[in-house]
């Protein structure tokens, strides 16, 4: 069983969580002119690395908070988790 | 409060499962907890109000994960950062909360009708929950609460007593029937009394 340490609740089973996507993607700045290429990159382009990956997860069956996870995509080892307002 | 409770047509009274030659007092007891007032309180993130001086029914808001503050009539469950569930038998609880928690700083929602509540009581209650829930129940102590899943159904577990273990299990009303069947099915192995 994969366990994830929620920054609010502590270690819980992965069953309680939901994956929320790549945490490294930055949304284009609000109010700025955005080219089609930039928007396309933001919406669709993902690196899909083999190794360390920063991700969003949601503790959907627990405290319902979003947080960040640093995970190895090949071993599933989780190195660190952090709140959204913390550095990972 | 409506007379139709979420499990009224589902819950069966009697003795079920492997109860033969067992003392009925040692069997698990499963019941529906009815007519609870369930109020969700959310403290707005942008609010600068300090919670130290605010009490509801004389109870402070628990600020740590899995903590519950309680008295005879009311329990305040930590449900997430700045989010609590108030479970009370007091019919005036909503007004009492509104007096203490103003709507500039708090969102207060009465969700009494949107939850089904099952109580399971007995020395094997933890074993029943372990069959469907991944949470570490061995570390669960009296007056702890936690949100988790039971066979995929999102539930809130509140351990109100530990001699014998008595869990109040809250789930969405629409999942109530399915959840009730999951729990009673898991309890058949030990034998249970529907109360």
Largest interface: A-B, 14 and 14 residues
What general form of chain A does the structure show?
Answer: globular
Strands of chain B, count: 14
The secondary-structure element order of chain A is EEEHEEE
The major β-sheet of chain B equals: 7 strands, mixed
The CATH H-level homologous superfamily of the domain at 1-22 and 51-88 in chain A: Folate-binding superfamily
* Through-space gap between termini of chain B: 22 Å
Examine the secondary-structure arrangement and name the CATH architecture of the largest domain in chain B. 2-Layer Sandwich
What do the pLDDT scores of chain B average to? 95
Q: Give the count of helical stretches of chain A.
A: 1
Task: Give the structural class of chain B.
Answer: mainly beta
Query: What percentage of the residues of chain B does DSSP assign to strands (E)?
Result: 35-45%
> CATH-wise, what's the superfamily of the largest domain in chain B?
Probable tRNA modification gtpase trme, domain 1
What portion of residues of chain A is helical?
10-25%
Taking pLDDT < 50 over at least 5 consecutive residues as the criterion, the unreliable ranges of chain A are none
CATH hierarchy, class of the largest domain in chain B:
Alpha Beta
Number of strands of chain A: 6
Assign an overall shape of chain B. elongated
């Amino acid at each position: 069983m994969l366990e994830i340490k929620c920054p609010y609740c502590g270690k819980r089973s992965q069953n309680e969580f939901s994956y929320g996507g790549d945490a490294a993607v930055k949304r284009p700045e609000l109010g700025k002119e955005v080219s089609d290429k930039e928007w396309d990159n933001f919406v669709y382009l993902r690196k899909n690395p083999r190794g360390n990956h920063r991700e969003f997860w949601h503790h959907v069956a627990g405290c319902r908070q979003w947080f960040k996870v640093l995970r190895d995509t090949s071993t599933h080892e989780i190195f660190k988790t952090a709140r959204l307002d913390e550095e990972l | 409060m409506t007379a139709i409770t979420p499990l009224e047509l589902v819950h069966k009274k009697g003795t079920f499962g492997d109860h033969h030659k067992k003392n009925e007092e040692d069997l698990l007891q499963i019941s529906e907890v009815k007519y609870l007032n369930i109020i969700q309180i959310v403290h707005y993130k942008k609010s600068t109000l300090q919670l130290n001086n605010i009490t509801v029914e004389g109870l402070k808001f628990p600020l740590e994960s899995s903590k519950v503050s309680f008295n005879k009539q009311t329990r305040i469950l930590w449900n997430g950062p700045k989010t609590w569930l108030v479970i009370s038998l007091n019919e005036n609880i909503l007004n009492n909360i509104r007096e203490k928690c103003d709507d500039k700083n708090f969102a207060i929602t009465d969700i009494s009708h949107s939850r089904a509540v099952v109580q399971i009581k007995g020395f094997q209650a933890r074993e029943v929950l372990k069959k469907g829930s991944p949470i570490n129940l061995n570390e669960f102590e009296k007056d702890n609460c936690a949100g988790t899943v039971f066979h995929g159904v999102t539930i809130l577990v509140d351990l109100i007593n530990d001699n014998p273990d008595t869990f109040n299990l809250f789930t969405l009303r629409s999942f109530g029937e399915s959840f009730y069947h999951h729990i009673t099915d898991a309890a058949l192995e030990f034998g249970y009394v529907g109360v």
